[in-house]
Amino acid sequence: MWRKRLLIAAIVLLCAPVLARVYIHYSVSDRVYSDINKVPHCRVAMVLGAKVRPDGSLSVSLASRVNKAIALYKAGKCEKLLMSGDNRFKNYNEPERMRDYAVQRGVPTEDIALDYAGRRTYDSVYRARHIFGIKKMIVVTQSFHVDRAIFLCKHLGVDGYGVKANAVGDTRASIRECPACLGALADVYLRQPHPVMGKKETI
User: Fold this and answer.
1) How far is CA 146 from CA 10, 93, 105, in A?
2) Does 26 have pLDDT greater than 70?
3) Backbone angles phi, psi at 37, to 5 degrees
4) What is the span of the domain harbouring residue 88?
5) What is the DSSP-derived secondary structure letter of residue 192?
6) Mean pLDDT of the chain
7) What's the total number of domains in the chain?
8) Does residue 167 belong to any structural domain of this protein?
9) Between residues 46 and 170, which one has the greater pLDDT?
10) Of 48, 7, 16, which Cα lies nearest the Cα of 137?
């Protein structure tokens, strides 16, 4: 009997992340867009951070996100860009590298805000609401990630719409998204953590 129970428990543990991923996908599927012409207008579009190379250049996935945000800006779908990423270490700064990339491609500096404490997707969304006072925004990231971002918006008081950046063929990232979705459910319904905060900013 104990072996049977152990087997059932193992199956549940293995299935839980996949079920979490499926649940989150279907709960926000009507708010995720591939075509920027179809996404509702929002004053702010937030770009979620990703890896920056040691030489300061953006990784392929991050460049794809910023490129999509630039396209949104130039199409008049937003007026401001919020670059949210990691800056825990002195020699590593995602938001500033993202801003520099966008400025080089025609986005005015004054239309770009930086969130230096977007260490996780949860943190980025939470801080967008409580530090920058954003109640409605577009979120730009890859397709494997965008569902979770909009799910978090939904539960953290932000009217969020997701736009998919170009896929970069990262199978491992897609696999990691399953336990990440389970973690998002735990954050929303159980843990309700408070990320690094600070003074309120305007955008």
Assistant:
1) 29, 22, 24
2) yes
3) -70, -15
4) 2-191
5) -
6) 91
7) 1
8) yes
9) 46
10) 48
Three-state SS for 84? Answer: strand
If we measure between CA atoms, which residue out of 145, 182, 186, 188 comes closest to residue 15? 182
User: CB–CB of 115/48 below 8 Å?
Assistant: no
User: CATH number of the domain that 125 lies in?
Assistant: 3.40.50.620
pLDDT greater at residue 5 or residue 139: 139
Q: Do residues 162 and 146 make contact, with C-beta atoms less than 8 angstroms apart?
A: yes
Task: Say if 202 falls within a structural domain.
Answer: no
**39/112 Cα distance (integer angstroms):** 20
pLDDT surpasses 80 at 12: no
Tokens at 203, concatenated = 């955008």
Question: Tell me, what's the pLDDT at 109?
Answer: 97
**Sheet with 44-48: strands ordered across:** 32-33, 159-165, 136-142, 44-48, 80-84, 112-115
| 3-state SS, one letter per residue, for the chain | CHHHHHHHHHHHHHHHHHHHHHHHHHHHHHHEECCCCCCCCCCEEEEECCCECCCCCECHHHHHHHHHHHHHHHCCCCCEEEEECECCCCCCCHHHHHHHHHHHCCCCHHHEEEECECCCHHHHHHHHHHCCCCCEEEEEEEHHHHHHHHHHHHHCCCEEEEEEECCCCCHHHHHHHHHHHHHHHHHHHHHCCCCCCCCCCCC
